[in-house]
Amino acid sequence: MGQSSTNQITRKVSVAIIGAGTAGQNAFRQAQKTTENIVIINDGIWTTTCATIGCMPSKLLIAAAARAHEAKNSDEFGVHADVQIDGKQVMARVQAERNRFAGFVQDQVDSWPEDKKISGRAHINKQGLIEVNDELIAADKIIVATGSSPFIPDDWADKLGETLITSDTVFELTDLPTSMAVIGAGAIGLELAQAFNRLGVEVTLFNRANRVGGLQDESINQKAIECLSYELNMQLNSEIKEVGKQTNANDTVSAFIDYQDSAGQSQRWQGDCVIVATGRRNSIDQLGIENLGVELDDKNRPKNLNINTGQIGDLEVYIIGDANAHIPLLHVASDEGFSAGSEVCRDNVGAYIRPPAIPLSIIFCEPQIATVGMSLPEIKQSERQHVTGKVSFDNQGRSRIMGVNCGLLHIYGCKETDKILGASMVGPDAEYVAHIMAVAITNELSIKALLDTPFYHPTILEGLRSALRDVQKQMAIPFQTEKKKQDGF
Ligand SMILES: Cc1cc2nc3c(=O)[nH]c(=O)nc-3n(C[C@H](O)[C@H](O)[C@H](O)COP(=O)(O)OP(=O)(O)OC[C@H]3O[C@@H](n4cnc5c(N)ncnc54)[C@H](O)[C@@H]3O)c2cc1C
Ligand SMILES: NC(=O)c1ccc[n+]([C@@H]2O[C@H](COP(=O)([O-])OP(=O)(O)OC[C@H]3O[C@@H](n4cnc5c(N)ncnc54)[C@H](O)[C@@H]3O)[C@@H](O)[C@H]2O)c1
């Protein structure tokens, strides 16, 4: 039955979920505990961005790169290795392990009743009904979990043709190229640029601002640039004027980028391919979301978003995960899916609305970049009395032992409350430091309480203690332990 010809509603459901990534699948799992009358619609792969083209394959590539880097850089330890990188094997492992992760997600989806799943691209029509394939669906509640996709500026896709790569396609490479440009020094650009560089690809990383990883604390940003540029060729503060491809004498196709470098000089880069990592855009503009009464701001973010549940004002519409462009990270998509699924089925015993998580972001380059809680500009804007506790990892005991001694941690402490407002770091084990900071901020632990916990010796986390002591030293609140000489060792 073609809905366009008959205009007849083909299903009436209590809950319709559009998009079956991490957010949509979590919402479905939760909501189906109380209602049988549910449908989930997805376009393309059912194995999520995270497992298939996001978090997992990128970390698999980074894992191979870390092995290569250690093997190639152990001379100072008296360990000499002749390192050979087999690009085909590197990519084969990335794909095999990625497929294994994606397979678990597929198994879950396969266990759901067939009549509750629709493969196809959904659109919401002027009547607020969902059109997909030949169906016209009326839903009491609609959860939108349509994710995001790579943003490619201007007409770069046409100009670069087959030399253009995005995070959607990069993990399908069957071998490593000889050279590549990466445009964008955000999370994706940094992780991929460093990983490919460590695997022997000649990489140049471009960014229009003199900033990496979106860092908003200028000292941490400068330190990150310093640490990363020991091994990576970065053209920061550069302006890309033109991109294109050319056919070479031997009939191979290569890419070029004409740019103005930070000194204002015109330059040309040439190489095999270009990874465009200039940000992602939420996929809701073509959906017809306005037909449900949802308004978007100038950045395509839904107005009146309840950050606990994704509900839009008092509409029976929920926008969750990357689709709402609030915090486009995996744990947020997962939590929002769970909460929206709970909210639409409140009678369920397992229903639970999670409080919104405090901001936490980790970029898995080395040294890692992490930010937690309020950023420095946000703190300054809030006019809170704050101090910044600092520690350098350049001479920190365990970091030096391990040969990973490049980094800086700033902890922003609130002068009035003895609590942590936020932290920003580039350095070894930043992922663990960031999680401890997140626990402290979420549970409103005081600096004193944190300093009363044991810090094992010798650990990189002793650096965290030094920064906490530095916060406490600058506070009006008296601190309980004097800094000892051996703390630096
Ligand atoms: C390379 C990369 C690395 C990343 N690494 C990390 C990391 O290390 N840590 C981290 O926290 N986050 C990371 N992220 C971000 C994380 O992957 C995302 O935040 C998360 O996967 C978003 O989940 P989601 O459910 O919102 O969207 P998705 O998983 O993208 O699901 C959306 C689904 O909706 C479908 N869809 C879209 N429009 C329609 C429509 N009209 N009709 C039907 N279906 C539709 C899509 O096809 C898709 O299947 C990374 C992302 C990338 C790209
Ligand atoms: N480890 C992680 O948690 C992780 C890893 C990868 C992706 N992600 C998620 O994916 C999202 C998207 O990542 P992303 O790196 O694509 O986006 P991003 O917004 O983090 O970074 C984009 C970068 O591209 C630069 N840029 C934009 N246009 C440009 C141009 N024309 N020329 C030169 N530079 C330009 C920007 O200045 C910015 O530095 C992240 O915000 C994050 O939520 C997270």
Please explain how this structure is put together.
Keywords: FAD, Flavoprotein, Oxidoreductase. One of its GO terms (molecular function) is dihydrolipoyl dehydrogenase (NADH) activity. This is Dihydrolipoyl dehydrogenase. Its cofactor is FAD. With 489 residues, this protein is of the alpha/beta class. The chain folds into three domains: 2-149 and 281-343, FAD/NAD(P)-binding domain (3-Layer(bba) Sandwich), CATH 3.50.50; 156-278, 3-Layer(bba) Sandwich (FAD/NAD(P)-binding domain); 360-483, FAD/NAD-linked reductase, C-terminal dimerisation domain (Enolase-like, domain 1). It is built from 14 helices and 22 strands. Strands 1, 2, 3, 4, 5, 6 and 17 form a seven-stranded mixed sheet that branches. Strands 8-15-9-10-11 form a five-stranded parallel sheet. A hairpin with a 2-residue loop joins strand 5 and strand 6. It is globular and about 75 Å long. Residues 1-6 have low confidence and may be disordered. Flavin-adenine dinucleotide binds at residues 18-24, 41-45, 48-50, 54-55, 58, 121-122, 145-147, 167, 188, 283, 287, 321-323, 328-331, 333.
